[in-house]
Amino acid sequence: MAWNDEENARQQARREERARREEEEQKRRKLEVAEKQARKMKAFLEEKEKEVLQLQEEAKNFITPENLEARIEECLDNPQNYNFAIDKDGRIVKRTVLS
Questions:
Q1: Which family does it belong to (predicted)?
Q2: What is the C-alpha to C-alpha distance for residues 87 and 90, in angstroms, rounded to an integer?
Q3: Could you give the 3-state DSSP secondary structure of residue 94?
């Protein structure tokens, strides 16, 4: 009977050790998942912040009712001619004269 009690105690100690290791492994995995999620969120926020800054920079060139007259004058002062032909290499072959 004493041997059986010793064996039961030994088996109980092994079970407790295995449960402790599994619990530590589970905590470690949860921590890794949380860290990975935090990194993803940080990268996402950085990308969105960069996108917002880019949109703010682009918004400086928007035509608004306040700057409409100035933009019209600027376009009239600097006419652009987009009527031209290009070859396969992208060079301008023929351009019409602005009237």
A1: Belongs to the mitochondrion-specific ribosomal protein mS26 family.
A2: 5
A3: strand
Phi, psi of 19 (to 5 degrees): -65, -40
Instruction: Chunk the chain into consecutive blocks of 10 residues (it has 99) and report each block's average pLDDT, rounded to whole numbers.
Output: 91 96 97 97 98 94 92 90 87 76
Separation CA 5–CA 1 (nearest Å)? 6
Strands 92-95 and 84-86: antiparallel
Rounded Cα–Cα distance for residues 93 and 99 (Å): 19
Structure tokens at 50: 């960069």
> Which of 98, 31, 94, 4 is closest to 39 using CA atoms?
31
Distance CA 93, CA 72 (A): 30
pTM score > 0.85 for this model?
no
Are 98 and 78 in contact by the 8 Å Cβ rule? The answer is no
| DSSP secondary structure code for residue 59 in this structure | H
**The residue to which tokens 């449960």 are assigned:** 19
